[in-house]
From TrEMBL:
Signal peptide: none annotated. It comes from Filimonas lacunae. Residues 3-163 form the 3'-5' exoribonuclease Rv2179c-like domain. This is DNA polymerase III, epsilon subunit. One of its GO terms (molecular function) is nucleic acid binding. Gene3D superfamilies: Ribonuclease H-like superfamily/Ribonuclease H. It comes from the Bacteria.
Amino acid sequence: MAYIMVDIESDGPIPGDYSMISFGAVLVNDALDKTFYGRIKPISDKYIPEALKVSGHTREECMGFDDAETVMRNFAHWIAEVCKKDRPVFISDNNGFDWMFICWYFHHFTGSNPFGFSSQNLGSLYKGVVKDTFQTFKHLRKTTHTHHPVDDAKGNAEALLTIKKEYGVKMKL
Protein backbone atom coordinates (compact mmCIF):
# COMPACT_ATOMS: atom_id res chain seq x y z
CA MET A 1 0.00 0.00 0.00
CA ALA A 2 1.09 3.57 -0.68
CA TYR A 3 -0.15 6.10 1.85
CA ILE A 4 -0.94 9.50 0.38
CA MET A 5 -1.49 12.29 2.90
CA VAL A 6 -3.98 14.84 1.55
CA ASP A 7 -5.14 18.26 2.69
CA ILE A 8 -7.73 20.44 0.96
CA GLU A 9 -8.88 24.05 1.18
CA SER A 10 -12.39 25.03 0.16
CA ASP A 11 -14.69 28.03 0.03
CA GLY A 12 -17.53 26.29 1.88
CA PRO A 13 -18.59 23.22 3.84
CA ILE A 14 -19.63 20.75 1.11
CA PRO A 15 -18.64 19.87 -2.46
CA GLY A 16 -20.96 20.75 -5.31
CA ASP A 17 -22.68 23.67 -3.64
CA TYR A 18 -19.23 25.06 -2.81
CA SER A 19 -15.79 24.58 -4.34
CA MET A 20 -12.51 22.93 -3.46
CA ILE A 21 -10.02 25.76 -4.05
CA SER A 22 -6.77 23.86 -3.63
CA PHE A 23 -5.34 20.65 -2.32
CA GLY A 24 -1.98 19.12 -1.62
CA ALA A 25 -0.81 15.53 -1.44
CA VAL A 26 2.39 13.91 -0.21
CA LEU A 27 3.47 10.32 -0.74
CA VAL A 28 4.32 9.10 2.75
CA ASN A 29 7.90 7.85 2.55
CA ASP A 30 11.02 8.72 4.52
CA ALA A 31 12.00 11.53 2.13
CA LEU A 32 8.52 13.08 1.69
CA ASP A 33 9.84 14.17 -1.68
CA LYS A 34 6.87 13.39 -3.92
CA THR A 35 4.16 16.03 -3.74
CA PHE A 36 1.19 17.25 -5.75
CA TYR A 37 -0.44 20.67 -5.63
CA GLY A 38 -3.66 21.52 -7.40
CA ARG A 39 -5.50 24.84 -7.59
CA ILE A 40 -9.04 24.61 -8.92
CA LYS A 41 -11.28 27.26 -10.44
CA PRO A 42 -14.57 27.48 -8.49
CA ILE A 43 -17.38 25.28 -9.79
CA SER A 44 -20.15 27.24 -8.06
CA ASP A 45 -21.16 30.86 -7.69
CA LYS A 46 -21.67 30.25 -3.97
CA TYR A 47 -18.87 30.81 -1.49
CA ILE A 48 -18.40 31.83 2.11
CA PRO A 49 -15.86 34.67 2.37
CA GLU A 50 -14.59 33.49 5.77
CA ALA A 51 -13.99 29.97 4.45
CA LEU A 52 -12.21 31.26 1.35
CA LYS A 53 -10.04 33.55 3.48
CA VAL A 54 -8.48 30.50 5.20
CA SER A 55 -6.95 29.46 1.86
CA GLY A 56 -5.15 32.80 1.51
CA HIS A 57 -6.69 33.39 -1.93
CA THR A 58 -9.17 35.95 -3.13
CA ARG A 59 -12.19 35.00 -5.22
CA GLU A 60 -10.62 36.85 -8.15
CA GLU A 61 -7.42 34.79 -7.87
CA CYS A 62 -9.42 31.56 -7.72
CA MET A 63 -11.24 32.41 -10.95
CA GLY A 64 -7.87 32.15 -12.71
CA PHE A 65 -7.09 28.65 -11.40
CA ASP A 66 -7.22 25.50 -13.56
CA ASP A 67 -10.48 23.73 -14.36
CA ALA A 68 -11.45 20.87 -12.07
CA GLU A 69 -11.36 18.10 -14.67
CA THR A 70 -7.79 18.92 -15.69
CA VAL A 71 -6.56 19.09 -12.10
CA MET A 72 -8.26 15.86 -11.05
CA ARG A 73 -6.97 14.00 -14.12
CA ASN A 74 -3.46 15.30 -13.37
CA PHE A 75 -3.83 14.16 -9.75
CA ALA A 76 -4.97 10.68 -10.85
CA HIS A 77 -1.93 10.48 -13.15
CA TRP A 78 0.38 11.57 -10.30
CA ILE A 79 -1.13 8.92 -8.00
CA ALA A 80 -0.54 6.23 -10.64
CA GLU A 81 3.07 7.39 -11.09
CA VAL A 82 4.02 7.48 -7.41
CA CYS A 83 2.16 4.32 -6.43
CA LYS A 84 3.30 2.13 -9.32
CA LYS A 85 2.24 -1.35 -8.17
CA ASP A 86 0.95 -0.31 -4.73
CA ARG A 87 -2.66 0.45 -3.90
CA PRO A 88 -3.04 4.14 -2.98
CA VAL A 89 -4.44 4.76 0.51
CA PHE A 90 -5.98 8.16 1.25
CA ILE A 91 -5.17 9.53 4.69
CA SER A 92 -5.71 12.98 6.15
CA ASP A 93 -6.03 14.93 9.37
CA ASN A 94 -9.78 15.33 8.88
CA ASN A 95 -10.78 12.64 6.43
CA GLY A 96 -14.48 13.38 6.86
CA PHE A 97 -13.92 16.77 5.24
CA ASP A 98 -10.94 16.23 2.93
CA TRP A 99 -12.22 12.87 1.63
CA MET A 100 -15.67 14.12 0.74
CA PHE A 101 -14.21 16.82 -1.52
CA ILE A 102 -11.57 14.61 -3.18
CA CYS A 103 -13.97 11.70 -3.67
CA TRP A 104 -16.76 13.93 -5.03
CA TYR A 105 -14.41 15.77 -7.40
CA PHE A 106 -12.87 12.53 -8.69
CA HIS A 107 -16.23 10.91 -9.37
CA HIS A 108 -17.84 14.07 -10.74
CA PHE A 109 -15.00 15.12 -13.03
CA THR A 110 -13.24 11.86 -13.97
CA GLY A 111 -15.82 9.14 -13.33
CA SER A 112 -13.73 7.20 -10.79
CA ASN A 113 -11.65 7.58 -7.67
CA PRO A 114 -8.16 5.98 -7.67
CA PHE A 115 -8.37 5.67 -3.88
CA GLY A 116 -11.45 3.46 -4.10
CA PHE A 117 -14.19 3.84 -1.51
CA SER A 118 -12.41 4.35 1.80
CA SER A 119 -10.10 6.69 3.62
CA GLN A 120 -8.04 6.79 6.80
CA ASN A 121 -7.98 9.37 9.58
CA LEU A 122 -4.63 10.34 11.10
CA GLY A 123 -6.18 11.73 14.28
CA SER A 124 -8.12 8.54 14.95
CA LEU A 125 -5.01 6.43 14.37
CA TYR A 126 -3.09 8.48 16.93
CA LYS A 127 -5.92 8.33 19.49
CA GLY A 128 -5.95 4.55 19.17
CA VAL A 129 -2.18 4.24 19.46
CA VAL A 130 -2.03 6.34 22.65
CA LYS A 131 -5.34 4.88 23.91
CA ASP A 132 -6.82 8.30 24.70
CA THR A 133 -9.59 9.87 22.62
CA PHE A 134 -8.74 13.34 23.97
CA GLN A 135 -5.21 13.40 22.54
CA THR A 136 -4.04 15.04 19.32
CA PHE A 137 -1.10 14.22 17.07
CA LYS A 138 -0.49 17.84 16.04
CA HIS A 139 2.57 18.27 18.27
CA LEU A 140 4.31 15.66 16.07
CA ARG A 141 4.32 17.91 12.99
CA LYS A 142 7.64 19.44 11.99
CA THR A 143 6.42 21.58 9.10
CA THR A 144 4.39 24.57 10.25
CA HIS A 145 0.65 24.38 9.62
CA THR A 146 0.17 27.30 7.19
CA HIS A 147 -3.09 26.39 5.40
CA HIS A 148 -1.06 25.89 2.24
CA PRO A 149 -2.24 22.36 1.54
CA VAL A 150 1.17 20.93 0.64
CA ASP A 151 2.70 22.29 3.86
CA ASP A 152 -0.20 20.91 5.88
CA ALA A 153 -0.10 17.50 4.18
CA LYS A 154 3.66 17.34 4.71
CA GLY A 155 3.33 18.18 8.41
CA ASN A 156 0.71 15.49 8.80
CA ALA A 157 2.89 12.99 6.92
CA GLU A 158 5.76 13.83 9.29
CA ALA A 159 3.44 13.10 12.21
CA LEU A 160 2.46 9.74 10.66
CA LEU A 161 6.11 8.77 10.22
CA THR A 162 6.78 9.70 13.86
CA ILE A 163 3.81 7.62 15.02
CA LYS A 164 5.12 4.67 13.01
CA LYS A 165 8.64 5.02 14.43
CA GLU A 166 7.95 5.96 18.05
CA TYR A 167 4.95 3.73 18.66
CA GLY A 168 5.95 0.76 16.52
CA VAL A 169 2.90 0.97 14.28
CA LYS A 170 3.24 -1.55 11.47
CA MET A 171 2.83 0.08 8.08
CA LYS A 172 4.19 -0.81 4.71
CA LEU A 173 5.55 2.41 3.24
